[in-house]
Amino acid sequence: xxxxxxxxxxxxxxxxxxxxxxxxxxxxxxxxxxxxxxxxxxxxxxxxxxxxxxxxxxxxxxxxxxxxxxx
Length: 71
Fold this sequence. Notes:
27% of the residues lie in helices and 34% in strands. With 71 residues, the chain is α+β, with helices and mostly antiparallel strands. It has a three-stranded antiparallel sheet with strand order 1-2-3, with helices on one face. The longest helix is centred in the C-terminal third of the chain and has 19 residues, at 49-67.
């Protein structure tokens, strides 16, 4: 992401079998070489982690690093 290397893992959790409503998850830390922040995001009923939770986590990481003068 713009020269910032983020390590992360997406996930999708079924809530009720057959409901078609899954929860989205993403956990990450950054920067990879010398981590300053770690975040975990869960979005209920949002589907896939990469589509729903990852963008939120990236925004959080960017905002934090910018607030401490590293973003």
